[in-house]
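User: I've been trying to design a sequence by hand for this structure and keep getting stuck. Would you show me what you'd pick, starting by listing the structure so we're on the same page?

Assistant: Good idea, let's start from the same input. This is the structure you sent:
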């Protein structure tokens, strides 16, 4: 068995701190784009665990032989992402499941970090051999103009989540986690427990999933006869430093009233809110309750443990592979939007 590459080894190779490498790979801190890309490419070349998938032939029993040639001699499926896959639904489990499925048919997955340069110039990464690309998988890629650019390239394409669908033309298959129903039921349950003042945290226009979570928030408040007050929400653009606890604590202090409940668009935001509340001397759940979305690995380990919505990442990975492989085999079939069910998990942060 090959030796597992560690964050410290990547840091040593680049002459950076382990914390800088961790922030870059998990997309959880302020790291310059140039440094992040350098770290990502080094991690890929060194075979860091998130990007060195295990041999699926030992794990995917009963699959078609990995020696089966891909159609048209094209053997590469390119992952396009604007940020390194980390703790969200675009994380390791999803990619591992996707890799296991495509490996069995002789495809290989390559990872391409789409920089601002490619987005601004509407071009492919310079090191990409487009003639060998059988299909493209897009994760954490929410530029409207770049998504439309990809849709015009006549290459089988699948988005896992997408830019807000009514703002651009996504002529491709899209796979989502279910957002509306789970968010609605979670919030409705908590409103029934006297959480009448509910604040939404996050850029609602960041992507389709964030927007659907916002729609659930708006719907449940309207159905319960509660006024929707955006002045008591934190809705700043995602370019703002939500990970900066001091900045976020200032945003919370600026709210008209302290909410009964913060509904955060994902668990990363919820973790930041919990830290900001502690900085303000507020205790969760005694003073204010907090819930998120994703069921990140840390959610169950936090103090308090985080109420959230679980995304079934492995199921999404296998489903993504099936959709994209089907598109490669049948490029003229109608495009599909597919949703994978999610589950609400109630924990201590809303007790």
């Amino acid at each position: 068995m090959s030796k597992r590459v560690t964050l410290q080894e990547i840091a040593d190779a680049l002459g950076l701190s382990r914390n800088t490498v961790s922030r870059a790979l998990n997309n959880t801190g302020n790291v310059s784009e140039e440094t992040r890309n350098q770290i990502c490419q080094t991690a890929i070349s060194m075979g860091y665990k998130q990007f060195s998938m295990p041999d699926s032939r030992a794990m995917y029993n009963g699959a078609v032989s990995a020696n089966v040639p891909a159609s048209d001699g094209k053997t590469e499926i390119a992952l396009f992402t604007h940020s390194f896959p980390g703790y969200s639904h675009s994380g390791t489990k999803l990619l591992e499941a996707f890799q296991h499925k495509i490996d069995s048919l002789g495809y290989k997955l390559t990872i391409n970090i789409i920089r601002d340069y490619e987005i601004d110039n509407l071009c492919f990464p310079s090191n990409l051999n487009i003639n060998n690309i059988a299909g493209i998988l897009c994760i954490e890629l929410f530029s409207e103009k770049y998504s439309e650019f990809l849709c015009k390239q006549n290459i089988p394409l699948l988005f896992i989540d997408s830019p807000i669908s009514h703002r651009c033309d996504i002529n491709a298959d899209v796979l989502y986690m279910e957002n509306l129903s789970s968010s609605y039921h979670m919030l409705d349950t908590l409103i029934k427990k006297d959480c009448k003042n509910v604040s939404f945290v996050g850029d609602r226009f960041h992507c389709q999933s964030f927007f659907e979570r916002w729609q659930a928030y708006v719907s449940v408040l309207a159905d319960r006869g509660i006024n929707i007050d955006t002045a008591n929400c934190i809705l700043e653009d995602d370019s703002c430093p939500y990970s900066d606890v001091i900045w976020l604590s200032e945003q919370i202090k600026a709210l008209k009233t302290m909410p009964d409940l913060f509904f955060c668009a994902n668990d990363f935001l919820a973790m930041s809110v919990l830290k900001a509340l502690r900085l303000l001397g507020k205790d969760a759940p005694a003073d204010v309750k907090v819930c998120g979305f994703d069921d990140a690995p840390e959610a169950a380990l936090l103090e308090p443990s985080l109420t959230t919505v679980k995304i079934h990442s492995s199921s999404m990975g296998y489903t993504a592979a099936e959709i994209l492989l089907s598109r490669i085999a049948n490029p003229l079939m109608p495009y599909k939007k597919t949703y994978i069910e999610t589950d609400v998990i109630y924990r201590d942060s809303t007790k």
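That's my pick for every position. To get oriented when you compare it with your attempt: DSSP finds eleven helices and eleven strands in the chain. The two ends are 45 Å apart (CA to CA).
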